Amino acid sequence: MAVSVKGDVELKDIPTIKKKALRINLNRNIYGTFAEIGAGQETVRNFFRSGGASGTIAKAMSAYDKDFSDAIYGVESDNRYVTEARLKKMLSHEIDLIEDRLSREKHPDKLFFSYANTVATIDFAKKFKGHGWVGIKFQLDPLEQYNEIILHVRFKENDARLQQETLGKLGVNLIYGAFYQHDDPKNLLSSLYDNIDLDQIEVDMINFSGPRFTYVDNRIMSLHLVSNGFTNAVMFGKDGFNVLPAQQLYKANIFTLRGSFRPVTLVNMDMYEKSIEVFLKDKKVNPDKTKVIFELTLPNLLSDGKLNERDFLDRAELLCSLGHNVLISTFVEYYKLVEYFSEFTKKRMGMVMGVNNLVQIFDEKYYRDLSGGILEAFGKIFYKDIKVYLFPIKDENGEIIDSETLKVHPRMKELYKFFKYNGKIVDVDNYDPAVLDIFSRTVLKMIANGEEGWEEMLPKGIADQIKEKRLFSYSKTKFK
Fold it and tell me: What domains are defined for the chain?
């Protein structure tokens, strides 16, 4: 049973949206406003229909007209309405009105809240399915500062009415979770999909803030969005805070490096630095609009089939400390990653990979689930405006293997030649030969066994962080 708040009337077994809304309504202390723009008033309608809403709803509104919306909440610098900044203004404005209009002396036990959403549902041509921002600002104690939960959604359904209904359910789940599941954010996160199917709506960003969430690491929340199947990819920026991928990648030149980064090594940085140098010289690349993404796939974060949160944070903190954006995705196959990026940009993209990874791309076994097999996958990769920057490796004899000397399956030779000689595969030839013998797994093993010398294999400052924060099972006693 979820934790109760003051004034709560207990209801057992609360599986439905109606029962969740009713429980909120029957709590004599929960009181607030609803401001919904772009999809009607679908969330508050559930509270009206469940009964007892007069004790919960102070005001419900939809400033649907843009001029009215601007008059109430102000004009955005970018003249957009479906933005996080707009949502935050709505939440703060409505909370200020509650505090101004309702006396605390008269309502000493009231837990005020403001729920808001600003969304764009599917267009008439059904080419753009729509997206939106949803949030709640709320109290759990009348004398306490407000908490805030803000999330971004992408609609998946092909009918505006269905999208509206799904948004209404999500809103009820969010409000209910805020008051009754705040002490377990992971459970709250999962409950957002109560009575909603995964193929109806996607939650691709969420942030918790406020006094009750000071212990919450929003990067972990992002990780659970991916692991629960709520979205295929999440991103956080150089500062470690969650960011919306669509905002970061929109109409950008995207350059990505995939790896385990356990830990990030000199060879990882050489791959990035030398290949991005070549990428930025491309005439079709705008350096000012280039986004660099270090990407980790979900399987890379699993240990014995389980999600290792601490290990994930260790890697993420090191990458962020080097000033890089980090993407966590479910895209094991490269063509799925390219398709994802192509949702946000048509500009030239770059991807750096090692020889072994490129050889795997030309292995037909990875495409058995595609009706068109490897040709379909390659069409999805190389039909886009993308170049692969190939970083060489040393073989067991110390020979350098690059695009000219690598070997693919005999059936793939002509296909490989086609892409190589059409400029889709570019050798990174300004690499540092001294780093080719460095492997993350070797460094990790040396740290675990207490061996000396691993520090020189890592970028400047990384070894100090590992020691100071005792990352990757580092222990001073092992090195005595």
Answer: 17-216 (3.90.950.20), 247-435 (3.40.50.620)
